[in-house]
Specification:
single chain; 198 residues; mainly alpha; 0% strand; Transcriptional regulator, TetR family; HTH-type_Tx_Regulator; MT1864/Rv1816-like_C
């Protein structure tokens, strides 16, 4: 391995260490307490080294949120591929989204700005809208199959996304006084009612 390749690998390793440390700190202390100094201390480098790899904390948060959206996208695709008809796909996609949110709470909070500023404003990537796109595709196919007006698919799928995201947000922000089973039941009933309404 040449000198250039060795330096490039070292740079990539430090960058990965910064992201890992930031995510680990967020899990133990919360996103709000994250700072460039704490990240530098965690990886045992000086703060300027962190700034060599990321312009600021927002750039680190954006990179982590992008990884979160990528992981979510993979889970949604897996769920979609398990079914052939759009009704079952829709249910599976929503269920996978719900499971991802609570299995990866720190990611979800960062990805959607729950209790903090949303990361990556104005820097949207394809993965950011994969859930909404899949909801739209299933909704469109169900409406088409039922012989209804397909031009309503965008509005209807957006309404479903809002309901799902709203239930997750309520549960994450007020999980002490709302039973998880009640929210999941509400979610399942909402999806079933949505499909019947198309």
């Amino acid at each position: 391995m040449g000198l250039h390749e060795r330096r490039q690998r070292e740079k990539e390793n430090i960058r990965a260490s910064i992201l890992d440390a930031a995510f680990s700190l967020a899990k133990t202390e919360g996103w709000a307490s994250l700072s460039m100094r704490k990240i530098a201390d965690a990886i045992e480098y000086s703060a300027p080294v962190v700034y060599d790899h990321f312009e600021n904390k927002e750039a680190i948060l954006y990179e982590i949120s992008l990884n979160g959206f990528h992981c979510l996208h993979i889970e949604l695709l897996k769920a979609q591929r398990e079914h052939d008809n759009p009704e079952d796909q829709l249910k599976a996609i929503v269920d996978a989204y719900w499971k991802f949110a609570f299995k990866n709470k720190e990611y979800y909070q960062l990805m959607f700005g729950l209790g903090m500023q949303c990361s990556g404003k104005g820097m949207m990537k394809e993965e950011f809208s994969s859930f909404q796109d899949m909801l739209y595709d299933c909704t469109y196919e169900i409406i088409k199959k039922n012989g209804s007006k397909t031009e309503n698919a965008c509005h209807m799928s957006h309404a479903l996304f809002s309901a799902v995201h709203g239930l997750i947000s309520i549960m994450m922000m007020r999980n002490d006084d709302i039973p998880s089973t009640m929210n999941k039941t509400t979610l399942d009933e909402t999806v079933s009612a949505f499909i019947k309404s198309l």
